[in-house]
Amino acid sequence: MAPKKIVNTALNDEFAERMKKPILKVWNMVGHDVLRDAETMGERIDNDSAIECCIDADRLVIEGRDTSANAMLDLMLDQHGYPRVLNFLSKKIRLV
User: Fold this and answer.
1) HEC profile for the chain?
2) List of residues 6+ apart from 79 with CB closer than 8 A
3) What residue spans define the domains of the chain?
């Protein structure tokens, strides 16, 4: 039996750097529509909302085509909870 791979589940710069490219890819695909729709409704999108648009609803897989990033995100969500991971990524990755 192969040894089990140990996965670092810390919310750290390594995690943020791994998530940056797939999140930017998704934002490049959906960001314009999100910002336009918010403006139409008289709303303003903050960075937390922009990050949430990218990591919610399996968008890293559907739009970003990055199953490994989505798996890592799911692991972090299980370990740390959605609000904490969202807050961390929002501080480390600037979209708006």
Assistant:
1) CCCCCCCCCCCCHHHHHHHHHHHHHHHHHHHHHHHHHHHHCCCCCCHHHHHHHHHHHHHHHHCCCCHHHHHHHHHHHHHHCHHHHHHHHHHHCCCC
2) 9
3) 13-92
**Rounded to whole angstroms, how far apart are CA atoms 2 and 46?**
45
Q: Which two tokens stand for residue 84?
A: 């904490």
- Dist CA 84 CA 88 (whole Å): 6
Burial of 6 (0-12, 13-18, 19+ CB in 10 A): exposed
The verdict on pTM exceeding 0.85 is yes
Residue 96 has pLDDT above 90, yes or no: yes
Per residue in 22-61, pLDDT (tens digit) is: 999 999 999 999 999 999 999 999 999 999 999 999 999 9
Contact 73, 55 (CB under 8 A): yes
